[in-house]
Amino acid sequence: MPGVNDTMVVNGVSIDDSFAEAFPMAGTAIQITAINEKWALEAARSMTGFATSVIACGCEGGVDRLLAPDETRDGRPGVRVLFFSFDAGGLEKQVTTRLGQCILTSPTSACYADLDAEATIDLGSAIRYFADGWQISKKFEDKHFWRMPVMEGEFLCEAKTGVTTDGVGGGNLLLMAGTTAQALAASEAAIEAMRRVPDVIMPFPGGIVRSGSKVGGKYKGMMASTNDAYCPTLKGVTKSELGPEIGSVLEIVIDGLSSAAVADAMRVGIKAVTDLGPQEGALRIGAGNYGGNLGPHHFHLKDLLP
Amino acid sequence: MTGLTFRKKAEPEERLDLSPLVPAQLAGLSAADIAGLKVGTSRLGVTVGDIFEVSGDDPATIRFEGGSPRFDRIGEAMEAGEIFVQGDAGMRLGRMLKGGRIVVSGSAGDHAGSAMEGGVVRIAGNAGDRLGGPLAGEMMGQKGGTLIVGGNAGARAGDRMRRGVISIAGDAGPDAGSRMIAGTLIIQGRAAGTPGRLMKRGTLFLCGGVEHLAPTFLDNGPADILILSVMSRTFAAGEVGSVPFGRQPMRRYGGDTAVLGLGEIFLPL
InterPro entries, alphabetically (chain B) (predicted)? Predict the structure, then answer.
């Protein structure tokens, strides 16, 4: 295999001596509640739709975890949602647009801050004018809410939420298997484990990317194009990173509110894949990077072994 | 270091202005300096040492052992620290308070928490008239913080209130929440007179009913809205403590339409 030094093997799964190269991002967390879990999830899914990659979507977002009624501000079922973007300004624009179109509109929903930080971005403060003068500001116990009369009743939204610039985007794992079914099985096992790690999201569909990319391309204006070195159908015609035993590759991209959270998610993901083993899952685990010169966060796989 | 304690020797023969006895003004003063501070309001020139035995050396915590309805202006404009009063307090308790905490085990006179901006004032007994309200000529009453009364309050509690929370466990005298600009006023007992008269914005909870509701408040119907349970849960976990409106259905009245009309009164269904 050209360019790969797979010196580590865990439970029959080869692990590349490589690293994931990740970037600083602005991140935030909000709490969405509703009359039941179904409607909290409907609102959260709507808000985090088309939020897979910051390059084309403006932000990356996803569900961190479900919240039990005793964990939410209003005692109803809820969902914690995370969003990431290049900077706080871009993040605020995306979050408030999605808040107005996906949470305000969703039956029985309410929205609250779920990240304590000195820096903040607007939530309800940005969309309160929808109430056309009937909005009500309520401040008590150091909290600030906006109440907006709507046809269903009243939409309640916290004024602001915290934003951190310690967020990390682009942690990743490449799961290489003999077949697509095996690659998917390994990826699903990893995602199931990684979703239990707090403060991270895997923003692609089901947490999994089938079309990992490289920077740029042969066509003018393309910011990203297919990662031909990991395309199994291009083995032999491109400078491939794949050996003859690899028939399919899937990627998991991880964003987190801290570097430690991303590392934790990668660690449990690697463990889940190695526990599954090469017969049912992946033959090999790798990670994507740009040579180490672009992103300040380097997650070396050898440091994250189970 | 132990907190400064002012032990009352005898009931004063005149009203006292205790506004100098706040942490920022007492910091760095010797016991003799403190004893020499003038607190009288007559020509007699009464000093701290005439009224109190002073002990302790930490002005961040001040304790009055033995209160009096003549102890006026306790904690005025305090920015940080704690004041405990064992007994009653006089007028203008915690007026213009900016931060910190004042706890009174007895009752307080008129204008308690007047125009306070932050911090907490907790009165275990009753409060006099114009709780949190402005003095004559001032445009705004309470601007922030939390004001809690364990007993009843006098007339026009929350007059011209701008922000913050007032909670009255007992009954309120006539016309609570008059001229409210914003903020939250909770009366767990019965409200006398015509509460909320000329309120522009703000929220008035009249959990124990009302003597008379002004015709310029309009019935919005039963209010099954989330802010009630969020407030109830937040208050229960914070300074205010348990309030009844998270558990009982409420009816909302919008007003006062004689002015801006963006305020609200909640009454039990």
Answer: Formylmethanofuran_DH_suC, Glu_synth_asu_C_sf
As a whole number of angstroms, the distance between CA A217 and CA A299 comes to: 26
What residues make up the domain containing A204? Answer: 8-22+167-304
Based on the domain organization, do A84 and A118 belong to the same domain? yes
ipTM of the complex: 0.92
* Beta carbons within 10 angstroms of residue A126's beta carbon: 20
| Euclidean distance between CA atoms B105 and B126, whole angstroms | 10
Q: Do B233 and A74 touch (CB under 8 A)?
A: yes
Note down pLDDT in tens along chain B; length 269 residues: 899 999 999 999 999 999 999 999 999 999 999 999 999 999 999 999 999 999 998 999 999 999 999 999 999 999 999 999 999 999 999 999 999 999 999 999 999 999 999 999 999 999 999 999 999 999 999 999 999 999 999 999 999 999 999 999 999 999 999 999 999 999 999 999 999 999 999 999 999 999 999 999 999 999 989 999 999 999 999 999 999 887 778 999 999 999 999 999 999 98
From A106, A135, A164, give the residue that closes a domain. Answer: A164
- Residue A141 has its nearest CB partner, among B163, B201, B234, at B234
Contact assignment for B230 to A73 by CB distance below 8 Å: yes
- Quote helix, strand, coil % in chain A, to nearest 5: 30, 35, 35
Residue A287 within a domain: yes
CA distance B106 to chain A (A): 25
Q: Are B226 and A143 in contact (CB < 8 Å)?
A: no
Are A160 and A198 part of one and the same domain? no
Amino acid at A137: S
CATH number at residue A52: 3.30.70.520
